Amino acid sequence: MRRADPLILSSQPRVLQLFKPASRLALLTNHRQELALKGRLPSHVRESLRFVSTTITPSSKKASENDKVSPYSPPTTGLLSYLPSSVVPYAELIRLDKPVGTYYLFLPCLFSTLLAAPLASPIAPPVTVVSTAAIFFFGALIMRGAGCTINDLWDRNLDKNVARTRLRPLARGALTPKQAVPYLGLQMFSGLALLLQLPAACFWYAVPSLPLVAAYPLAKRVTNYPQFVLGLTFSWGAIVGFPALGIDLLSNTPALISAACLYSSCVAWTVVYDMIYAYQDIRDDAKAGIKSIALAQEANAKMFLSAVGTLQVGLLAAAGVAVGAGPAYFVGAVGGAASTLGYMIWKVNLSDVVDCWAWFRKGAWFTGGAISTGLAAEYMVRYLSEENEQEKSHP
């Protein structure tokens, strides 16, 4: 009598233990049809082999990789944890929990306000400077949120493919475009209401920046240097501070040259800090087809950052020369920018996502703080000097 085949006598679990994964697949592809035709396999064994064929596939491997990605969990700490759950997606959309972007949008406004203050006639008093800066800050908070909303509307399908952005509200489906668009309208209206608190000329200086806000997300699809477009957008406040204090740039050539140099300097600064920021997503951007300066300059990143940083400092110095700034400006603002930028570029580890994010955040405080301090010192020196002269002339 022919000896019974052990495979036929095995139970279903035994079949799965009998073959290693590679052997299971080989058995399936080479012998399944033949064995089934010969009737050598009972039904429960054939089902086991069908289980092997449907689980050991590339798609299952991909699924297992996706399972490793952490799912969304509501915030349990910070400002967002105190908000109603229905409001959280809207707060996340405008990055309310990540204010560093607001700081970067506000700082050029502060720079221009402080640089323009001594040029006003009479010199702008501290109360005016502070109140103007406050309007700019809240405007930056609102318009940065609007920019994030526009960006996420454009990128909601791309964001799903990038680890850092895949859980953004529109990308994960917590909000729909039909919800985000009216929210964007509310933000734009609020920004307009704040803008109207400034002199009327500011409206005409500010409005041309709006097309740039919409263009940045598109730039990531057509150029390797979208950070330059972002710089044109984020630096616009370097111009608006002058008309905010009553200075007509079109009739004041030194102020116009200074504003142009300050604006260009801020554009260069944006390229530096946002290039560091972009290194967080460099691998995902490459896979998703998103263009980035980090990808374009990957081979010589530190050299490129150093060149753009040098350009920023040079333009910042030129802005001071144009209006006859004094030592406080060149030591504090220009010297501070040079030292903090140089240190950041030297220390940042572009291959470390955590380090890139840390230095991106520090840049607002280090470089932005140094420039602001130098400008504030220059303003106070001039303001106190004029006060002393007035006291002498009117004893």
Automatic annotation (TrEMBL):
Hydrolase among keywords: no
Pfam annotation, one family: UbiA
Record field: catalytic activity: an all-trans-polyprenyl diphosphate + 4-hydroxybenzoate = a 4-hydroxy-3-(all-trans-polyprenyl)benzoate + diphosphate
EC number, as in UniProt: 2.5.1.39
Main localisation: mitochondrion
Keyword Transmembrane helix recorded: yes
GO cellular component, as recorded: mitochondrial inner membrane
BP GO terms, sorted: terpenoid biosynthetic process; ubiquinone biosynthetic process
Recorded family membership: Belongs to the UbiA prenyltransferase family.
Function per UniProt: Catalyzes the prenylation of para-hydroxybenzoate (PHB) with an all-trans polyprenyl group. Mediates the second step in the final reaction sequence of coenzyme Q (CoQ) biosynthesis, which is the condensation of the polyisoprenoid side chain with PHB, generating the first membrane-bound Q intermediate.
Name assigned to this protein: 4-hydroxybenzoate polyprenyltransferase, mitochondrial
Protein's organism: Zymoseptoria tritici (strain ST99CH_3D7)
